[in-house]
């Protein structure tokens, strides 16, 4: 049973594993019935892992079994699989968080820790309500699966743009994209970081901290830094209006009003803000301002209804106070009338 003539090869050498798996997984005829890809091995040969293994004989790199295991190989759709979407960061982290293992390559080992703090990581680990972990990017989403390679300078906007397509298009309309083509910066990661991508806030327009406008542009630069301040002001004004609109809808609902139209307008205003936030990347104050102004106009309609509700409530309260006072007056008169009749 273990004769070499029968095909037994014993324990495979690490450097032989990718080619061994490829005997089946790169065979179109064998894989056709399972309807799975057959280019994994070809991609692996282009990856950093594959090049180090094949070209330099480095057996410390990841091979098929490093990620898929050996005998207990599960489908990637199986939640228990090491390559299931939400398990990928931990699988990559088994090597990339190991300082001793990564020391010869002189690369960081804090990527997994940073990713867990990021907005992407928070979604993937189920810590943000109403967000689907299956849609959050993991390591493979950005770096590739079998062809895992760090994105190059010019590739970063395209990689991010695979998910953030509208933002990528807006970026390509702005001056930062021209600078990227000419000088290689700024890239998405220069403002948003790479593994620790936090949810952006208006604070990014202020100061010189990493990722903030002042990191590259002087606060005295009215042309560049000033544009950012214009955009920030427009968004801040619109966001404040949104808060007032939300309060207005709540007031109208509490007063028993039909709020269907108000809720629709509020949702449309929210959509305007979402679009404006995306179009920040054009760095065009007018483009952003047109959308924020559109949101404010919608909120003004809600505010008018809310003010009408407040006026109606004031009238009702006054009417109620008058009615109660009239009841007490009538009760008092009846009381004294009753006493006078009793004495007689």
Provide the gyration radius in Å.
Answer: 32 Å
Give the overall silhouette. Answer: elongated
Largest sheet: none
Q: How many structural units, i.e. domains? A: 3
Q: Please, could you describe this protein's structure?
A:
- By secondary structure, the protein is mostly helical.
- The protein is built from 17 helices and no strands.
- Helix 15 (225-254) packs antiparallel against helix 16, helix 15 packs parallel to helix 17 and helix 16 (260-278) runs antiparallel to helix 17 (285-343).
- The mean pLDDT is 92.
Characteristics of this structure?
344 residues, mainly alpha, 3 domains, 17 helices, elongated
Summarize the model shown:
With 344 residues, the protein is an all-alpha fold.
Describe the secondary structure blueprint for this structure.
Blueprint: H1 17-25, H2 28-32, H3 40-46, H4 48-56, H5 64-68, H6 88-96, H7 99-102, H8 111-117, H9 119-124, H10 139-143, H11 156-161, H12 165-172, H13 175-183, H14 188-192, H15 225-254, H16 260-278, H17 285-343
């Amino acid at each position: 049973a273990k004769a070499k003539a029968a095909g037994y090869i014993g324990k495979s050498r690490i450097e032989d594993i990718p080619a061994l798996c490829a005997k089946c997984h790169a065979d179109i005829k064998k894989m056709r019935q399972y309807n799975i890809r057959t280019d994994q091995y070809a991609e692996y040969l282009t990856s950093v892992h594959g090049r180090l293994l094949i070209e330099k004989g480095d057996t410390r790199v990841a091979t098929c079994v490093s990620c898929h295991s050996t005998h207990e190989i599960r489908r990637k759709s199986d939640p228990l699989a090491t390559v299931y979407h939400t398990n990928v960061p931990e699988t990559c982290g088994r090597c990339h968080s190991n300082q001793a293992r990564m020391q010869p390559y002189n690369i960081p080992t804090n990527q997994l820790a940073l990713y867990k703090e990021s907005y992407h990581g928070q979604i993937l680990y189920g810590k943000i309500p109403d967000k689907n972990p299956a849609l959050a990017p993991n390591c493979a989403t950005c770096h590739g699966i079998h062809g895992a390679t760090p994105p190059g300078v010019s590739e970063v906007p395209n990689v991010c743009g695979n998910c953030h397509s509208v933002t990528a298009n807006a970026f390509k309309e702005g001056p930062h994209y021209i600078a990227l083509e000419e000088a290689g910066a700024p890239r998405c990661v220069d403002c948003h970081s790479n593994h620790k991508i936090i949810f952006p806030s208006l604070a990014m327009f202020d100061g010189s901290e990493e990722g903030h406008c002042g990191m590259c542009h002087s606060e005295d630069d009215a042309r560049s830094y000033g544009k950012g301040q214009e955009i920030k002001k427009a968004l801040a004004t619109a966001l404040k209006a949104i808060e007032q609109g939300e309060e207005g809808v709540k007031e109208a609902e509490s007063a028993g009003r039909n709020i269907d139209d108000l809720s629709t307008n509020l949702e449309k205003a929210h959509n305007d803000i979402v679009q404006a936030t995306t179009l920040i990347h054009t760095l065009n104050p007018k483009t952003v301002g047109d959308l924020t102004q559109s949101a404010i106009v919608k909120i003004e309609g809600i505010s008018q209804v809310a003010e009408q509700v407040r006026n109606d409530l004031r009238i009702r309260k006054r009417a109620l106070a008058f009615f109660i006072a009239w009841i007490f007056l009538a009760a008092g008169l009846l009381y004294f009338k009753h006493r006078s009749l009793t004495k007689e």
